[in-house]
Amino acid sequence: MMATRDIPDFERPLTTVDVVIFTVLDGQLQVLLVRRPDGPEEPFPNAWALPGGFVDVRLDDSLESCARRKLLDKTGVQSPYLEQLGSWGSKSRDPRGWSATHAYFALLPADAVQLKQEEGKFAQWHPVNEPPPGQPLAFDHADILQAALERLRSKVEYTSLPAFLLPEPFTLPQLQKVYEIVLGRPVDKSGFRTRALAAGFLDEQGLLDVGSPRPAMGYRLKDRAAAVYFPRPFSPRSS
Amino acid sequence: MMATRDIPDFERPLTTVDVVIFTVLDGQLQVLLVRRPDGPEEPFPNAWALPGGFVDVRLDDSLESCARRKLLDKTGVQSPYLEQLGSWGSKSRDPRGWSATHAYFALLPADAVQLKQEEGKFAQWHPVNEPPPGQPLAFDHADILQAALERLRSKVEYTSLPAFLLPEPFTLPQLQKVYEIVLGRPVDKSGFRTRALAAGFLDEQGLLDVGSPRPAMGYRLKDRAAAVYFPRPFSPRSS
DNA sequence: CGAATAGTGTCTTTCAGACATTATGCC
DNA sequence: GGCATAATGTCTGAAAGACACTATTCG
């Protein structure tokens, strides 16, 4: 390595933040995408992309606050579950120059979201299993989305993450459904209930009538800031 | 969010990469630290710091190749186990300005390292349990080191990561020792052997005499590039 | 009273942890 | 042959998965 003695005089990389925002809507896991602006000088004009953009050193105190700002702008949600996913940086990922993006992923209940339509820019939910129509995602956002999905699916096996996708209060059958949606496979009811309750992240909120024949107990999270880790992962018995 | 239509005209954050390099030496988990340069304009002069520095857009194709370059510079090691840890960015972490660092962590066998002493800059191994003498670590490197330790200790519970800390070939008792060093607790021999062998990441290399009364089977990794995940974590029986 | 969903009980099998035992090589 | 370490065997208890059963509400 050469001089760290001083700030280097060569070009600084571009610094951006992107947020992968998940929710469950219509029984599917969905991700929020925005359309890139049109224009001859724009990278990936009109393509769908993850919400994000440049770090603004005048507005943002930190990477995380930058991510929260973008999240608030797009969804109106103040404090969803938010975790850092990783960073992607190379000289080729953005045609405008050497760029590094810091990716976050967020989980929130669909009903909390007020999609903002500003200046002809559309934010829209897309099922993660159906690629958005038209061109592929802008930049390396397909890679980032893929990584976010893998992280989510892997953590769902042993954490309370899916609870952040539901509006409160929710019932255990509803929560189980979300686990099944994210995992893509059925989950045993009895085992699920035992584990979820034993993990101790739920507070009872009284019976809840959700339209099914028999009302079920409503629950809310004890702590909407942090996920809870189960001692062992869910796993179908390997025969 | 405002204009992503164009590259913003305000200041760009500084972009750096730091590497947390672990090895096992003298029966302890150790981390490689370097001394910050001295000088009136230097941030944290003379303090110990993680090896790292600015991304050089002329030299580095990507964040990872930047990390590998710094690793090679400091240790001479070409391809250790390397994984991204996360990023830390804020306006206050570096007195020189808004800065974002991309942290990686690397595992390597101590004997592979040729510590380079250049221009009076010292790279030196430090046991992770003993804070280095003098001032605290530069920047937020104590936080980063802490995060790396947590990541390592957590992954050791259910992956083959410790194998990357040993020179090949190694024996199972040696490997078990490394697990115990990183975990900070004893591990049952029988269970360890069963799990390690069942995980299928080892290749037999013939008997190895390591000075103990009875020679033990030597092993090497089938794949030095990737860690293997165990189906279930190690865990002492919770009585 | 029947249908549909909520919630509980029970059985079985797996498997990790604990610990005892055997195997091997060296002095 | 004894000692130290390597390697394997055995037992047991905990717990997860599978599935059957009971409970509750509504029409």
Automatic annotation (TrEMBL), chains A, B:
Residues 12-149 form the Nudix hydrolase domain. GO terms for molecular function: catalytic activity. CDD domains: NUDIX_NadM_like (cd18873). InterPro entries: NUDIX_hydrolase-like_dom_sf (IPR015797), NUDIX_hydrolase_dom (IPR000086), WH-like_DNA-bd_sf (IPR036388), WH_DNA-bd_sf (IPR036390), WHD_NrtR (IPR054105). It holds the Pfam family NUDIX. This is NUDIX domain-containing protein.
